[in-house]
Structures are given as structure tokens and as C-alpha cells.
Amino acid sequence: MLPVHVLPRVCALLGATTLLAAACAAPPPAATSRPAEGTTAPAGEPIYIGVSGPLTGPNARYGEQWKKGFDLALEEINGRGGINGRPLTYIFEDSQSDPKQSVLVAQKFVADERIIVELGDFSSTASMAASPIYQRAGLVQFGFTNSHPDFTKGGDYMWSNSTTQEQLSPAMAEFTVKEVGLKRIAVFNINNDWGKVTAQIFVDTVKRLGADVVAVESYLPDEKDFRSALTRVREAKPDGIALISYQADGALIAQQVEAAGLKVPLVGASSLHSPDFIRLGGKAVEGTLIRAQFLPTNPDPRVKAFVDKYRAKYNETPDFFATHAYDTMHLIAKAIELGGPTRRGVREALPKLRDVPSVIYGSVTFNPETRRVSNPQFVNLIVKDGDFVAWDGKLPTR
């Protein structure tokens, strides 16, 4: 956003570029959350966080889940008086997780002096396109769902509490081969940076473990018809199919697998752990196995307290993405408390954080060299009766 004193002259003379048009428009409203019942809202000047992510387009569901997690966390943070009497809030810009849009959002955020840290984007591709802008401006880009191994290599202002594909993909491969017991595996992967890196590491690990990859089918993000690919897969005679997909395309592939009469287990990446995968896929996704990072029925008191609050507020069970957003908002609040509500303060505080409570990880401490969380945890899930539940070790019947 351009400085306020410059806007009238610029808007009067120019209207040419997308960025200037956006800057001349009224700024998007900041998200607000009511404090919990029986508490008083902090009355100081708000502290602003910028969020770049999808609220429309094929990945909109992820942004919707983010907001639910953010808002529940803000109710708790601001219900306790905020940060030194100042409420924490966020401005969410819809990037559609498109690299071109994430760059424009980054330009707006770095020019808006109110914003002291940025969260997002959803995909590593969209985030990494914008990273140079945040790095030059000295604004932390906290890509909390960015699993591409190179994301935090973009500069010392790139941080993440996401596991990387160098951790997730081998874990998925080991689950597929050692625990599910598949020996001849066909792979479907979305053809973007995340999908290509994930698939390559997965395939290499499967082979190292002594199993065969009999087919690899890459597809474009907007692809809808997988019948030709499934014909090739059928001819390869796999004993299972790995889905390195997002929720919408993963659900569509599962439906077409069922329509093709391929009665083999489906093993999905953790990106499928979203309510839309079940809603969109229906009975076709029943029995899908997922190597995930969050189990809502975990009896740990911290997990149970969060799940109970989430269900009371939204009347649904939280998925990984809502939970991770909740964790992230609390983590960033701790960084602001420690370093102060400035861009430099957030950057200097992140490597100093120790054992910050987390629903996903138990606690978070960063590796200052990789700017990532140490010691990720994994759980094995299965879609059963329209829900994600702990896998009991038995192969599903399709």
C-alpha cells in the first residue's frame, strides 16, 4: 500500500497498473475476533499481520480453514489482553495461491508500514515467487504451509514451521512400502514445484526400499479428465496408487479410479487431510490412507482442549490446516511478545523462541540454520465413514 500522503496525487494522475489500482482502493478490512466471554478486549493500537493466501480459486478451502484457526487463536490472545494491551489482528489478501498475485500482495504488504510480519502463501510456488520482495524489505515471510525444501533458502527473512518434502516424502514412502505393504506403486502427482519435488523424493525412496514404481502420471493443476492416465496405470498392474495431490484434484482422481474399476488401495500425501477431500470425493475416497501430522482424537490434553473449543465454535472437527494456522498465530504472538511489535523485532525473536506450545508438534523450537522446526511427528490416518480416523493397520477393501 502506498503512503497515505502520496495516494491522492498518484490516484488522480494514474490508474494504469494493477498495483496502483489496488493501492488507490480502500484497504481491506482487518480481521477481528470477539474476545472470549467474560474478558475485555484490549484497547491499544492494533498490531497488524499480513496474510497472503487463497480465498477464491481451486485452493480456497485452505484459506477458509486458515481463517478459522487464526480467529480462534486471536480470541484467546486478545481475550487475555492482547500483546501488552494491544490487540493482534490480520489483513488477509486473496492471492488465489497464484505466483503473479502473491507478488502483488507482497508489494502491498512491504509498503504498508503497519504490517510487521507476513504469513503465507499457501503453495511454496506462490511464496517463493514473492520471497525476494520480502527479503529486500526486511519483512519476515512466514510460509507456514511451505514444504518445498528451498523455501527457507531464499533468505534469512524466510521462516516456516512446516515440515519439508525432504521429511514428508520419505515418511510417506516408508508408510506406503513398509506399513501398507505395497510393492508395485503407481503415482499421480500435480505438476507444480511442490508436486514435482514430492514425487521425485517419493519415487526415489520407494525404489531404495525395494519396491517398484510402475507408472508416474503428472497432471496440470486444472486437469479434470484422468481416464487416459488411468488406462496406462491399469496396464502397469499396480497394487496401489499414491496421490501427491491437493484435496480437489485428489478427490477427482479417486472418483475416476473407482469409475475405472481399479480396486487397489489409495495412499495420499498429507495435503489431502482436509474436509473438502471427503466432501468432494464422497464414497470414492473411503479407505484412503494418509501419512499425516495431526489426529483430532489424540488424547493429549492440549489437543483435546483445542478440538473441543474448535468444535464448539465451528460445529466441525478441525483439520490439519486449521490447526496449523491456530498454532502459527500463537507462535507469531510469542515472537512479537519477545522481540516487540516491529519487523526487526519479529526477525530477531524467532531464533530465540524455545519450546512454544503447539497442538501439532507438542512444542516448537527452531533450528536457526534451516529456520525450520526440528523433530516433526507423523500419524497414520484412514478415511472411514466420512471422517479421518487413526488407521488400525488393516488394508481397506475397495
Question: Overview of this structure, please?
Answer:
The chain has 13 helices and 16 strands. By secondary structure, the chain is an alpha/beta fold. The protein has two domains: 197 residues, 3-Layer(aba) Sandwich (Rossmann fold), CATH 3.40.50; 139 residues, Rossmann fold (3-Layer(aba) Sandwich). Helix 6 packs across helix 7. The chain is globular and about 65 Å long. The N terminus is likely disordered.
Topology:
Elements (H helix, E strand, L loop, with lengths): L6 H7 L4 H7 L22 E7 L6 H20 L8 E7 L4 H13 L3 E6 L3 H14 L3 E2 L15 E2 L5 H15 L4 E7 L2 H16 L3 E8 L7 H10 L3 E5 L2 H13 L6 E3 L6 H7 L7 E4 L8 H14 L5 H20 L3 H7 L6 E3 L3 E3 L1 E2 L4 E2 L5 E6 L2 E4 L8
Parallel strand pairs: 1-2, 1-3, 3-4, 4-5, 6-7, 6-8, 8-9, 9-10
Antiparallel strand pairs: 10-15, 11-12, 13-14, 15-16
